[in-house]
Structure formats: C-alpha cells, structure tokens
Write a structure and sequence with these properties.
Elements lengths: L2 H6 L2 H24 L6 H19 L2
Helix pairs in contact: 2-3
C-alpha cells in the first residue's frame, strides 16, 4: 500500500486494514515455518504497511 493510498483512507478503514494485515502476517509466519510461503518478501511488506498505517493514525489522531 502506497503513501497516497493510505492518505485516502478514513480512520475506521485504516484500523480494519491493520487488523486484516496482522492476521495475514500471522498466517505468513506459519506458512514460512511449513515451507509453504512462495514469496518471503511478503512478510516485510506487510510489516511496513502496518507501520505506515499506524504512523498515519498517530499523525491524524
């Protein structure tokens, strides 16, 4: 998710996205352990997207 996309979100949408991404991250970790994760870079991308959303929420609180 790009910076421009994050700015367009409302507070509720950002919170829902954070929850969804945290669940995805949880599943990616299990997939990595089991050797089922095809793209390991998704873990870092997901972490960075969560950080972007949290930063956005912190600045607009």
């Amino acid at each position: 998710m790009k910076k421009k996309e994050v700015k367009k979100l409302t507070k509720d949408q950002a919170l829902k996205n954070i929850d969804k991404l945290k669940k995805d991250l949880f599943n990616f970790r299990f997939q990595k352990i089991n050797g089922q994760l095809k793209n390991p870079a998704k873990i870092n991308q997901t972490k960075k997207t969560i950080a972007r959303l949290k930063t956005y929420l912190g600045n607009n609180a």
